[in-house]
């Protein structure tokens, strides 16, 4: 049996995301907004320091602190939303993949699986699918 390249495997796994494209767009939007609030937070910190050093800025020191607090809270909510939607995608995909695999196993059973350790096979398939959670929730969602 010919071994597939990592790129072709990743491409096939990304194709599975098609039914969840709207949720993926939400995840991407929340991630981008979260990074923008983090950048704004840092920028406001620089403005606050500039104000303390006597520079003339558009925002007062107190105003910068209030906006920093607002950005920090907003960043937390955006990050939580991104994580929530990313994990929703991951676990939904895992359910789809499990259904596909067990459908194939049902077609093979019992004749083709005779003499195989069925419990070990199920455990192996389940653990392999669980590893995909990391791919979808912690790799694809954040880099998108």
TrEMBL record:
SUPFAM superfamilies xrefs: ABC transporter transmembrane region
Keywords attached to this entry: ATP-binding, Membrane, Nucleotide-binding, Transmembrane, Transmembrane helix
GO molecular-function terms, A-Z: ABC-type transporter activity; ATP binding
Record InterPro entries: ABC1_TM_dom, ABC1_TM_sf
First-listed, main subcellular location of the protein, grouped into a coarse class: membrane
ABC transmembrane type-1 domain residues: 26-144
Coiled-coil regions listed: none
Membrane-spanning intervals of the chain: 20-53, 59-78
Cellular compartment(s): Cell membrane
Full protein name: ABC transporter ATP-binding protein
Source organism per UniProt: Candidatus Cellulosilyticum pullistercoris
